[in-house]
Structure formats: structure tokens, C-alpha cells
Amino acid sequence: MSDQRDPAPYDALLLLSFGGPEGPDDVVPFLENVTRGRGIPKERLKEVGQHYFLFGGISPINDQNRALLDALRKDFAEHGLELPVYWGNRNWSPFLTDTLREMTTAGHRRIAVLATSAYASYSGCRQYRENLADALATLQTEGLQPPRVDKLRHYFNHPGFVTPMIEGALASLAGLPEDVRAGAHLAFTTHSVPTSAADTSGPASGHGDGGAYVRQHLDVARLIADAVREETGTEHPWQLVYQSRSGAPHIPWLEPDICDHLEELHGAGVPAVVMVPIGFVSDHMEVLYDLDTEATAKAAELGLPVRRSATVGADPRFAAAVRELVLERAATERGVTVDRCALGALGPGHDLCPVGCCPARAPRPAAAGADSPYA
After folding, report:
1. I need a labelling partner for 85 at 20 to 30 A (CA). Which of 47, 101, 119, 258 fits?
2. Which residues neighbour 38 within 8 Å (Cβ) at sequence distance 6 or greater?
């Protein structure tokens, strides 16, 4: 990776995330934002919101983004990277449109965007690009000249993302009782999505068989499992499993579910499991409830020892990886060839999402891609 500190042509970085409620009164309005256009009754949203009400109506994701903001600003300052960092959300305050308006008013014209989703998928990439296009269109209607936004490449296989997860898996294994540790299995978890969305994730040339979404997760899982074997000298069987399904029962989603997987392993006599949430950047609600609460309760019911390893969160190595990604993309935009950090078999991802990448059910404008209306 080049050690240049020049972020040009970029004059700001935008941290783009999902957002979450910060009190009981926020829960239903937040869920209305998440499900807008689906016609879900408010009473049903109150039922769905019980996960949040169990934790005082507060999602941890906003505080985790604040911590990541602090980590990014600290890393940038320590390495002489003079680039202001802003934060905007898809579904809750600070809203993306408000943040982009603030950035535009402050004079920023070329913005690098880091989404808190490491993998290719409609909801993890294309939808954020659609959100950017919607926000830029709003600024236009307000008489503002929209800035150019460039989304940084997928970072699922960057060492700054993978290495902390390896250490988290090792720490969780070490935390298991010694008599079950050697026989423990690794369950790599990520958010389930409809199989149709998985199959069409990534560039059109790679659609089918789970698409880029499944391939990328399998590559990361293999990297971690291999590193654990090298460090411990023990081969721990592993599988990619899924969690947090939210769709209609008749629509096929990626399986197996983590709780079903725990039952299967227990029935096969597996003595312990480490759950490794590789699909999540931080310990937000899907981790806090679906793993730490629901899956852990299932394991206790089975009498199966489990540990849940840490997500990357605001780890300084991840902040450093973001700095590298910004400088890498900046150099590329200036026509400078740079080394691109990537572990595993898939190599570094594309800078510009091609036409047909992670398509939506109904075509919508999306920024920061080859089909962007905002050059």
C-alpha cells in the first residue's frame, strides 16, 4: 500500500450506516423507515420492535458508529491525513440527506463513502447506492449542486477487517472449558437474505449459486478457520450459517439458521461451538439479540457450551484499513498504480459497481456506480 497522505481528489469521508433507535419512542418510527413502502401495519411493527424494547428501545449501532468515527478521526490525525469525517444513516438520525446537505453547504465537492457493510448484496451495497442517489436528487431539488460521491470497495478480505476476527475466534476458543475446546466447531454467521438476492449479488458475470455474497463469506470463513488451525494446531470443523431472517415464510432464504445449526451439532455429539459473526462490522442488534440472546438461550437449552467472538467494531486496525482504502482509491483516481491489500482467493474488489451488479427487484437510480446519473 502506498504511504502517500494525499487524499485528493477527495475532500471528505462519509461514514454511511443503517441507523437505529435511541429510545422507546424511536422504535416504531424507525421501523416505519426501514419498512417504508411495504404496507406493514403499526401493530405488527410494535411486535417486531420487541427485540429493541428488551434493550430499552436502544440499538447499540449508533454508539458503535460514534466510536468508529472517533477511531477514524484519531487514525487520520496520527497519520497526517487531513480529511474530515462525517456520518449519515439510512433509517435514523443523523439522516443521510441531512448529512450530505451539511457537507455540500460546507463546500465539499468530492466525497469518499464507507458503508458499514463489508460484502456484496442488494441490501449491503446497491441499496446504499440508491440511498445516495435519492439524497443527491433531494439536494438538486433544493437548488444545491450535488457533490460527487464514490463508494469505497468491499473490504471483507482486507487484513484490517479479517485479522481482528481471527483474534476474536481464538479468544473465544480459549474461553471454552478445556475439556471441550479441542472438539469445538466454528459457526460463521451472517445475515440471511432471500436466495434470489444472494444469487444476483455481485457483478452479473458471477450470478448464481449464492453469487458474490456467499462466495465472499466462504472466503473469509476459510481464512479464519485456516488461521485458527495454524495458531492452535487443531482442525476445528466449520460451516457458514445464517441468522436474522425477516421475510415471508414462503420465500426461500439462505439456510441453515444458527439455532437449527446448534441443534444439529448437539445431536451429532459436538461438544462446543464458537459463533463467529463475520457478516457484521459491529455488535448491533442482530448480534446482541439473535446471537447473544436467542442463539445463546438455545445453546443453554441444549446444554451446549457456546462462545460468541467479537466483531471488528472500532478496532484501530480497521480504522487503519479505512485510511488505506481511502488513499488507495484517491491514488487510483489520480492515475497512480497502488498495491491493493486483500487476503484469500478472491482478490481486491472493484472500485466501480458495474451495470447489473446486485440488482433491485424494481430498477432505481443508484449513485457511485457505472450506471450512476451523478458523474
Report:
1. 119
2. none
This prediction has a pTM of 0.96
DSSP state of 206: G
**Residue 14 near residue 98 (C-beta atoms within 8 A):** no
What are the C-alpha distances in Å from 260 to residues 64, 187, 309, 332?
29, 12, 19, 45
Residues 171 and 289 grouped into a single domain:
yes
Question: Both 26 and 97 in a single domain?
Answer: yes
pLDDT 10s digits, 219-276: 999 999 999 999 999 999 999 999 999 878 899 999 999 999 999 999 999 999 999 9
For 175-182, the CB contacts below 8 A with 24+ separation are 175/307, 176/272, 176/274, 176/305, 176/307, 177/272, 177/305, 179/271, 180/271, 180/272, 180/305, 181/272, 182/234
Average pLDDT, the chain: 95
* Rounded CA separation 367/375 (Å): 8
Interhelix angle 316-333/159-174, nearest 10 degrees:
160
| 151 and 168 assigned to the same domain | no
State whether 256 and 144 are in the same domain.
Answer: no
Q: Are residues 174 and 108 in the same domain?
A: no
pLDDT in tens, 18-67: 999 999 999 999 999 998 877 778 887 888 789 999 999 999 999 999 99
- The whole-angstrom separation of Cα 189 and Cα 314 is 20
Same domain membership, residue 190 and residue 136: no
